[in-house]
Amino acid sequence: MAASEMLGAEMVIKALVDQGVEVVFGYPGGAVLPIYDALFKQNRLRHILVRHEQGAVHAAEGYARSTGKVGAVLVTSGPGATNAVTGLTDALMDSVPLVCLTGQVPTHLIGNDAFQEADTTGITRPCTKHNYLVKDVNELAHTMHEAFYVARTGRPGPVVVDLPKDVLMATGTYREPDEQAHRRYQPQTKPDPARIAAAAELIVNARKPILYGGGGLINSGPKACKLFVELVQLTGFPCTLTLMGLGALPASDPRFLGLVGMHGTYEANLAMHDCDVMINVGARFDDRVTGKVSAFSPGSKKVHIDIDPSSINKNIRVDVPVIGDAAAALEALLAQLRARRFKPDKAHLAKWWKEIDGWKARQSLRYEKSDTVIKPQYAIERLYALTRGSKPVYITTEVGQHQMWAAQLFKFDAPMHWMTSGGLGTMGYGLPAALGVQVAHPEALVIDIAGEASILMNIQEMSTIAQYSLPVKAFIINNQYMGMVRQWQELMHGARYSESYTAALPDFVKLAEAFGAKGLRATKPEEVDDVITAMLAHDGAVIADIAVDPTENCFPMIPSGAAHNEILLGPKDKAAAPASEEGMVLV
Amino acid sequence: MALRLRPKHAAEKAGRKAAPLAAAPATSATIVKRATIAILVDNEPGVLARVVGLFSGRGYNIESLTVAEVNKRDNLSRITIVTSGTAMIIEQIKAQLSRLVPVHTVRDLTAEGPHVPRELALIKVSASGEKRIESLRLADIFRARVVDATTESFVFELTGSTEKLDSFINLMEPLGLVDVSRTGVVAISRGAERF
To answer: Model-level pTM?
Structure first.
């Protein structure tokens, strides 16, 4: 048992290193100066200096989601901590493992409204998986280790450790990581065999089955995704994925029906609606997926595999809940199916596929092509086509129409290459997240598919990108509107475009140049390929401003409060579908 | 191109305005029931705020809440919450509580079988003459103890179920009720089983 005396600030650094952290994203300030001093005196931990604490958290999210490791953030007290709150909430909603260290005023001043004091544990309690205030330097090491353990165990999430300055400057005993010391938090990871058997029974007897995978597959890790692919191959069942789950099954797999939910494909949503057995692995029946709850997949028996018991029966009542890690549950389920010498019922499955192929034939992602104006879908399709190369490609997005088009049209053949803000829908996520991904994968191609409104929310991170010479590409689908807001105003508020047009946008080419990056612009369809090629050829950061059709809407769309089979396929559908009163109050 | 499918639930939609909630049969999905939940937690700063914040943040109801340390050696406190909701909500409350890091055990005493719920109240009554005598007589029937007396007031201490306390307090109302302080429910399961 190695124990040694050191300063609190040194313990923080040692604990981070002992937890396998290589990079920490942060911003200094008065309360964390001792940590920054300790950081200065070592060379094992790399610090990335962001321009805003929200950016630090999103960067750590990008880092975590593209590596499977716990992201680390270091910010100061008061405004440092409050600026981090949006990022923490985002990480909580999307189950991203993070540890965020916040400075705090010295313990004797807590509660006195001291300079840069905020009740950080109070403020972050509802937006973290757990948080700590360390009042004794001898508890510091144990707390740091437990924070990492809690962040990555069970359903992952962000954990805040609030560190008063006097604790950082006190001397105490460091303790090495010891997993046994965190026995009070032991989430169930092994599934109940009886439930697995019940799930297998439903699979064996299914006539119109569907597999519905989510972010839990990605979070569980590559093994879970591999087993999920095996399940798809063994059963031959059609499969859809949520926004967070994209990449868990290669998009090139013929059994992949595309994205499910509000802007999912016609075939995925209709198959969800009409199936007789639904196998949900690591998804949470989110309202973007279910649409109107009372009309959600009315005729199906549902299996729900989730590591978080509170996700079970929260929105949708299921028949076979399976609590456990996705990999463990899939392993058990596959073993069970193989032991029963399961062979899919070819005749029934063929009939079901025929029905699905009929829906597929509607080509729900089709759009009106144009020779005169750049269609946003066209820009993303070309980006996808021109980035098929030897380099691994990581895509991040901001939030809005461009995000949905990217999810529909960019095809992911591996997990952990798609980073987007799903649950919270945080505009401004994509650029800092891309920065974090690029730090983790310096050789990879990292592209933020952005909207011009979203990217301005964290555009200051271009300065961070410049400082570390990160070759991040920002591909802006610029329609001059907050496109999704504009779309809802058109469909539900009588086309009264209240405050959704940005009248004074910056010149993004000049903006790129001001940040030392390359600026490119396309205004005509024939320029798109050249701009993308030039963007990819440049070995530094690029902002590509793609001036797209400002009035294009994102389809298919299930209007809020509607059922899957009330999906709108194109602009001509909208007149026929006035939103219900019930739907109008939903977001 | 009429690409939109006609909703299968058109009848339901049309019917909603004519016959609102009255038509809905009472099922386990709609019946609101009371539940007494006992929670064993680490006795550490912020733990009560976590539990209370969970209830307010997710819109759950708290009818009463009690908390005190019950095990000094292991540093454990026990929280008893009386809440109400549909079966699905109560299930959610238990699952949400269980995933808090400092929470060790969550038990739904109402669902798990026979248990003893108790509450204590201190009730101040100020009266003279016949009313004063009547309050004392009723206190005797309810087995309330007099813990403070002046020439114009009594403080009664009463222990029992919530219903028993309610009815005693109602009886005191016309006799000169001045103040009530109640602990909220504490509860424990019957039998030898450990929590």
So the answer is: 0.93
